[in-house]
TrEMBL record:
PANTHER family: ASPARTATE KINASE, ASPARTOKINASE. This is Aspartokinase. Keywords: Amino-acid biosynthesis, ATP-binding, Kinase, Nucleotide-binding, Transferase. The keyword Nucleotide-binding applies. GO terms for molecular function: aspartate kinase activity; ATP binding. Coiled coil: none annotated.
């Protein structure tokens, strides 16, 4: 059995959906599970719905209408008959969403975010499933929330592996093509949870692990994994082969082509991961597996924008020792800061974080009670695996370097 994952760019319009169907006809769809993200930029559009729900109620329905209009245009391009059941199914999801928006009493942003944002994947997969059925590619639509169970850490939920595996194994038909959503799960109260942005890759890996799949293929609009994001770096090169370990390192440092948690379950059962182009499905792409040497051996560049660099020093010039560091990390955990780089000396401590939950002001207020604090917002974090001096010069040119850290395999630079 194989697991295929298609991202939003691959199904951003009716032609994208038709291309998915064509790809399945070319490569085969027996014993396949297809995991699909929200279409195009739907997640961003639904984030605006969330924002308006909390900050600008007068624009809420307008933002939601844009999401409906976008999907309706795709439906009209795919289905000649407006009485097709897919229109009713999509409409019922939007009715559910409207009901939530009108009846919700929770002030918890993260909870509300997860209840709203998941409709992108639900609508996307219903449209694709119904289209495939209409052209005689028979398939079974699965609500992933009935399979993947998590805690209630909304927006970055943790999987309950034992319960998830039991549910998948007892409710999965391997003999037909199955279609399900990426990114989503549900907690013990059956509220929707999400696995973190780009979490659809992780969903594919969860199913692959539980079903002992032969492989996972992530279909993207690039030829495979590149050694750099072509939006920020010129002359990006295709990586033909990389090891699980290398992929985990790249994902940890922020390589956007793979979700950070994706590799671990695959490595556990030595399930190979392929990253291929949905525009050229016959091309080999990138293979990730066990005991593979990076090919070609070139520097790999990763950049994370809009980071925060916090530098601390003791108020009385005393050493920053284990007790102080423990307290700092407790606060970072309390305010849900994702730590990307740390650096410390005898009387100073610097940390580069991702302020995902918008808790920076609360954190700084807490830190200032015990430390002298300097904060740089909107900095960029550059990471180079297998660096050369020329590679370092390339990312430092024309920038103010605020922090730099080197290990034998990796260099990280925080700059303005």
């Amino acid at each position: 059995m194989q697991v295929f994952k298609f991202g939003g760019a691959s199904v951003k319009d009716a032609n994208g959906v038709k291309n998915v169907a064509s790809l399945l006809q070319k490569v085969g769809y027996r014993n396949i599970l297809v995991v699909v993200s929200a279409m195009g930029k739907t997640t961003n559009a639904l984030e605006l719905v969330v924002k308006n729900y909390f900050e600008n109620k007068s624009e809420l329905q307008s933002a939601l209408q844009e999401v409906k209009k976008y999907h309706n245009e795709i439906l009209l391009d795919l289905f000649n008959n407006e009485n097709h059941q897919v229109f009713k199914k999509v409409g019922s999801f939007f009715n559910e969403l409207n009901l939530f928006l009108s009846s919700n009493k929770s002030p918890d942003y993260n909870f509300v975010y997860d209840q709203i944002i998941g409709y992108g994947e639900l609508v996307s997969t219903v449209i694709i499933s119904e289209y495939l059925n209409s052209i005689q590619i028979k398939n079974n639509w699965i609500d992933v929330r009935e399979h993947i169970k998590t805690d209630n850490y909304y927006r970055r939920a943790n999987v309950n592996w034992e319960e998830t595996q039991q549910l998948i194994l007892s409710n999965f038909n391997k003999t037909i093509l199955n279609i399900t959503q990426g990114f989503l799960g549900s907690d013990t109260n059956n509220f929707t949870t999400t696995l973190g942005r780009e979490g659809s890759d992780y969903t594919a890996a969860i199913y692959a692990y539980c079903l002992n799949a032969d492989s996972v293929t992530i279909w993207k609009d690039v030829p495979g994994i590149l050694n750099a994001d072509p939006r920020y770096f010129e002359h990006a090169q295709l990586l033909n082969k990389i090891s699980y370990r290398e992929a985990i390192e790249l994902a940890f440092y922020g390589a956007s082509v793979i979700h950070p948690k994706t590799i671990q379950p695959l490595q556990g059962k030595e399930i190979p991961l392929y990253v291929k182009s949905f525009l050229n499905p016959e091309a080999p792409g990138t293979r990730i597996g066990k005991n593979i040497t990076l090919e070609p051996m070139v520097p790999c560049f990763i950049v994370k924008k809009n980071q925060v660099l916090i530098s601390l020093s003791s108020l009385d010039f005393s050493y920053i020792v284990e007790e102080s560091i423990s307290e700092i990390f407790s606060l970072l955990h309390l305010y849900k800061m994702k730590v990307d780089v740390i650096q410390n000396s005898a009387i100073s401590f610097s940390v580069c974080v991702d302020n995902l939950y918008d808790n920076l002001e609360k954190l700084l207020h807490h830190l200032k009670a015990k430390f002298k604090v300097t904060c740089h917002e909107n900095v960029s974090l550059y990471t180079i695996r297998h660096y050369t001096q020329n590679a370092i010069n390339q990312i430092e040119e024309g920038k103010t370097v605020l922090l730099k850290q080197l290990t034998p395999e990796t260099v990280q630079v925080v700059s303005k």
